[in-house]
Each structure stands twice: as structure tokens, then as C-alpha cells.
Amino acid sequence: KKKMILDLDTGVDDALALAYALATPDADLIGVVSSFGNTQMETAAQNTLKLLELLGEDNVPVYLGASHSSTTTDFETMQVSKDIHGDNAIGDVVLPEPKQNVAAQTAVDFLIQSAHKYAADLIVVPTGPLTNLAAAYQKDTKVADLIGNVTLMGGALTVPGNVTPYTEANINQDPEAADYVFKHAKHLVMVGLDVTLQTLLTKKETQQWRDLGTEKGRVFADIFDFYIDAYDSLNINKAGAALHDPLAVGVAVDPKLVTLLPLNMMVDANDGRTIGDPTRLRDAHKNNFAAVAVDEPFYLERFMNYTLAILG
Ligand code: BDR
Ligand code: CA
């Protein structure tokens, strides 16, 4: 069975990526590393610990990662992130202090150690900035070739960005790290806005979690309803809120959910755009695969089956 590491900037959709990763029978979640992004890195780690405890899975270790991008010394949460994910990044839902502590090892060292231990059997799923993974690649140059599969949520190839007309939020947080990872990963699948904006969740589905009558079901419904309301009031999408991060987990274990375009990619240094790398365009070997279409009904059915099971 494959081993999975999630790299989360634990906001609302990251919380669902966590639930999906715990529920899927196709991989074992061996750890979660934390990143800045939707919130400060420490808050993301605490959110992960709290959610793991709520889900009865607090045996999964949580590692502290980058607190700012590879080219800056500081990070402040953007107002738009607070508007979409809440001040605490999980829809302003208050959860009890977790019993589990963060692990002693750093995120980068855990990624390196796991790459050597599991190699081709390891799947890394970043759903935030790519700072931790780029740092692991750079600290131990064997790591990029060892990790069998990196499937990330980020980027936009065929649709506009969500931060600027060109760039998506996770790439925008650290374009240099993202560029390094696209170019060096052995096998990288980009689950970008091209497909995540096609997988939407509404209050009809969150009501099904509520109807389970469990604390877990209520909490996840409250968290996601905050995000649905934000998508509505900020005019991002009135038809529902995007399941960005859990789609990356779904594709990581079952790439057949999407149509993949083989393309050697880069991140444009000027505008953070994820595009084809002209210097590698004619290379017969492709290391990047961009998801350009998704089977939404099939994915949504699986997403609801998994989440109803773990929240029940
Ligand atoms: C991505 O940015 C974050 O706000 C979300 O958690 C998701 O990972 C969407 O652009
Ligand atoms: Ca995220």
C-alpha cells in the first residue's frame, strides 16, 4: 500500500483533504507537515492537530514546516485568506486544545527520511505553498528522484488565477519554490484551478454531514458553510465552494479521476503563472502532468461516500 504525506496550510479545504486522506482505503497517511499560507504555519499545525483529534486519528504525527516563503523572512496572513477561511483558518469554528503535540523532527527532515524509507511507494500531496518540498529537495538532492509521486493542489493552466489574472494562491505564496519543484520532481501531477473550480460543494451536501448527528459532522459542516458563505458574499462562486485540496488527494490515489496533459512546466518569475517551460518543451521525457478535465459526478460521489463514512 502507498504511503502518503500531506503538506497543509490548514484552512477549510485543507481540512477536507485531511479527512479524505484518512478515509481513502488506497493509502496510509504517515504524517502531516505544516506550512504558512491560509494562515501562519503554527496555526495551521494546531488546526491539523485539533482536526486529527476530532476525527479520532491523533496517532498521525504533525511536523512544523516553513513559516514564510523561501525568499522572504516574514509572513503575514492576507486579508483575503481571513475572509475566505476565517481568522483561525477553519471557518472561525473553535475546537478544544489538542492533546497531541507537534513532532520533534522538522518537516524537511521528515520528508527526507520518508523519501529514503518509502521511495517509489511515497506520495506527497502539498495543498499549500511548495516551500517545504523545495527545501527538502535542496537539502538532500536525492529526494526529488526518490519520491514516487507528488500530486499538488496549485496553479492554473487553462483558466485565470485566483490571486491575480495569472497566478493561483499556493503558487503565488512562493513562486521560486514552486518553480524548483516543477522542474526537479520525478513525477508531478498539478491539480490546479482548471479542475478544482469544477468540483463544487453546496449546503445540500454539508447538511448531509449535519444529519449524521455526530460532533464531527456538525463541526465539518460549520467549517465548510463559512467557506460557502464567503464564496457567495465575495462573489467567487454562487453555485457552491470549490473542493480544491481534497481533489488533489483524490487524484493522488486515483489519477483516473482527471484527464492529464503531459507537459514540462515552470513558474514564470514575473507573474507566478504555471506554464510550459520553453527550454524543456521538446524533451521526450515529461515529468509534469497537468489535470485539465475532471469527472465531477464520479468524484463528488466518492467524496461524499468517504466524508460521510469518516464523519459518521
Ligand atoms: C488554494 O489556496 C488556498 O486558499 C486553498 O486552501 C487552496 O489550497 C486554492 O487556490
Ligand atoms: Ca490549502
From TrEMBL:
Gene Ontology terms: biological process: purine nucleoside catabolic process
Ranges where the Inosine/uridine-preferring nucleoside hydrolase domain occurs: 4-299
UniProt key word Hydrolase: yes
Gene Ontology CC: one annotated term: cytosol
Molecular function, one GO term: purine nucleosidase activity
Keyword Electron transport attached: no
InterPro entries, sorted: Inosine/uridine_hydrolase_dom, IUNH, Ribo_hydro-like
Keywords from the UniProt entry: Glycosidase, Hydrolase
Entry-linked CDD domains: nuc_hydro_CaPnhB
Pfam family, one: IU_nuc_hydro
Family annotation (SUPFAM superfamilies): Nucleoside hydrolase
Top-level lineage group: Bacteria
PANTHER family: INOSINE-URIDINE PREFERRING NUCLEOSIDE HYDROLASE (PTHR12304), URIDINE NUCLEOSIDASE (PTHR12304:SF4)
Protein name according to UniProt: Nucleoside hydrolase
